[in-house]
Every structure is written in C-alpha cells, then in structure tokens.
Design the sequence.
C-alpha cells in the first residue's frame, strides 16, 4: 500500500475514533469511567480465596 | 579513511560528525525515565492522588484503590460485560493507535516496563526461528478473539434477555467481568500475591490445630483452580520475559493485537535513510519486537509490531533511522 493510501485510511480511522469519542461523551461514559475506577474491579482480584 | 590514503569526501565527513553528535543522545535512558515515571504515576493512588478520568491504551491492572488511570482494554471488557457499548474505550484505542502507533506500548505501559526490566537481568536469551516467531505472533489475535467472544456473548445475551445475561455472567464468575483481566500477570503480581498471606491466614486453622488432615481439607480453598491458572500464567510471563524481550507484547497481549491492527496506518512512523544505511543489521538485532526493518519501505514504515521504542535508532551508528510524521 502506498503512503498516500495509508494516509487516507489513517484519516478515516481518525474520524471513526473521533466519532466514537463524541458518542462516548454523548452517553456520559466519562462518569462511567470514574465510577469504574472508584469501584473495586473484582476481576483483578480473582483467585484470592 | 579511504584505502588509497585519499581524504574522504567532505559530505561523508559531515555525515559521520553528525552521527557522532546524535550518538550522544540515546533514547533508551529517556524511555526508562518515562517508563518509571508512568509506572509510579499510574499507581499514585497510594499517595492519595487521582483517580483521573484518563483512558490510555495500556495494561494497568493494579489494585483499583491505588490506580489513577484506566486501561482501555480493561474498560472495554468491563463495559461489554455490563452490556454497554464501550465507545470511549474504543475511541482511546483508535485515536492513540492512528496518531502515535504503539508508542504507548513502548513508552508508558507498566507491563512493558516490567518486561524490559526482566530482560535486563540477562540470564539467558531464547531466539525462536522466524517461522515459529511468525506462528506465535498470531496467538495474541486468538486471545483477543476469545476475550471478545466471551464479553460479547455476555453483552448480547444481557441486551436480549437481562436475566439470562446475568445468569451467564454469574456462571462465569469473576472471569465474566474480564476474561483477560482475571488472568493478567500484572494483577497476579501486584494484587493477588500480596493479598494471599492474609487470605490464607483466614482459611487455615490456628497453628496449634493444624494437622495433615485439616490441611488437605482446606487445600482446595487455599488454591482454587483460577489461582493455580493465574500463577501458571504469571510464571510463563516471568520466564518468557527473562528469555525473550517483550515476550508478552509479541505473543499474548490482546490490546497489542488490537493496536497492531490499526497502527499499521499510523501517522507516526519511522524512516530509513537509504544513503546512510549500510544494511549492517544492527537495528534488526537490537529490535525487541523483531521487526525486519530492512525489508520495509525506507521512506516510511509502520510495522504492526513496532512499538516505537527507538532502540533501532540508538543502535544505528550512522543515524539512518528517524521518526517520520505524518
């Protein structure tokens, strides 16, 4: 693949990423992230008897 | 100096001088400082800092009470298992990978830092053949597929029938919350093992009452199957990283697999100066990810495995490798 073609694909991926970010903000997922950080993540401690 | 005793052309002299100047500025120690700082900062909850709503495509499976940032992949697993479309986690992976390639793997990922430190022990070195290496590289895509299948099926079942979804999640136990997170060696090393003595103390009868029979009876509780599996994974990680640089990133890490799919189109890459390059192969021998730099186009290359650690740039005596953007 030529560099120019790669740049076009990269720009499209970048736009997809920005769209996902906008959707994340729209659905208030930043609050989910903070909540996720504050609550204990049980999978991390899986295996402790 | 040329064979005939003639003076070398001025252009070559200039290039060599320039290379000598560049040789003084090595990137490996800058990377170590960045890695150590990130490692400390991401676990700065110990000193009461954070948490901050920052999502990075790295693996940070510290105890959640001490970590300050979120890893994209653990968030992706968590959100899928909660039947939420992980837009924000995917956005972080897509944007970082397309803008900077896998630079986060090479410079700030705590798991990568631990691997680099283990490789520095220099106990031994194992170099699989190219064929074995290429076959093993596909394992991480398999791991990614399995993780997405498990979390995806929980999400789909929960959306279609919440009761069945919850039942499926409960049946999988803690693995249902994060199939990869529940096996991650970083979590085992920094969370599970430090907590084991106190957990075992609760289960074991007092020292005076401890008999062979009472010990064998409590053994399944002391070592549940998931713990044994985690310890085996941790052992494989430790041994693999000692003998092979970036063993986990190369062959197992599902986040690395996801990043590799996108980073081949990254704006940030490397370029090799065809005039300066003597094809000495120093860069290939130094590369921890075994990227075949000389087989890639010189004007710009973004190998999916390249973590932009710049070890190749440090290894090059003639300064033929440079960063290239876009």
Sequence:
């Amino acid at each position: 693949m030529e560099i120019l073609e790669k740049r076009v694909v990269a720009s499209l991926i970048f736009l997809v990423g920005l769209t996902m970010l906008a959707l994340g903000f729209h659905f208030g997922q930043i609050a989910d992230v903070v909540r996720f950080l504050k609550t204990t993540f049980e999978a991390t401690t899986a295996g402790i008897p | 100096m040329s064979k005939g005793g003639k003076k070398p052309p001025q252009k070559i002299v200039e290039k060599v001088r320039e290379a000598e100047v560049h040789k003084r500025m090595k990137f490996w120690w800058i990377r170590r400082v960045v890695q150590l700082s990130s490692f400390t900062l991401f676990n700065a909850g110990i000193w009461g800092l954070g948490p901050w709503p920052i999502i990075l495509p790295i693996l940070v499976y510290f105890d959640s009470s001490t970590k300050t940032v979120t890893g994209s992949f653990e968030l992706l697993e968590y959100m899928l298992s909660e039947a939420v479309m992980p837009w924000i986690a995917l956005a972080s992976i897509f944007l970082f990978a397309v803008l900077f390639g896998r630079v986060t793997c090479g410079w700030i990922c705590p798991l990568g830092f631990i691997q680099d430190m283990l490789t520095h022990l220099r106990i031994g070195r194992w170099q699989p053949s190219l064929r074995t290496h290429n076959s093993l590289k596909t394992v991480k895509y398999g791991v990614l597929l399995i993780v997405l299948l498990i979390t995806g099926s929980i999400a789909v079942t929960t959306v279609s029938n919440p009761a069945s979804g919850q039942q499926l999640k409960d049946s999988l136990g803690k693995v249902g919350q994060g199939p990869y997170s529940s096996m991650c060696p970083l979590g085992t090393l920094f969370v599970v093992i430090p907590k084991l003595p106190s957990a075992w103390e609760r289960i074991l009868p007092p020292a005076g009452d401890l008999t062979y029979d009472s010990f064998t009876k409590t053994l399944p509780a002391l070592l549940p199957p998931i713990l044994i599996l985690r310890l085996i994974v941790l052992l494989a990680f430790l041994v693999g990283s000692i003998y092979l640089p970036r063993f986990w990133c190369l062959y197992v890490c599902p986040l690395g697999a996801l990043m590799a799919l996108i980073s081949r189109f990254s704006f940030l890459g490397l370029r090799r100066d065809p005039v300066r390059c003597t094809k000495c192969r120093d860069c290939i021998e130094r590369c921890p990810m075994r990227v075949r730099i000389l087989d890639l186009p010189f004007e710009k290359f973004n190998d999916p495995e390249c973590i932009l650690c710049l070890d190749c740039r440090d290894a090059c005596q003639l300064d033929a490798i440079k960063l290239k953007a876009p």
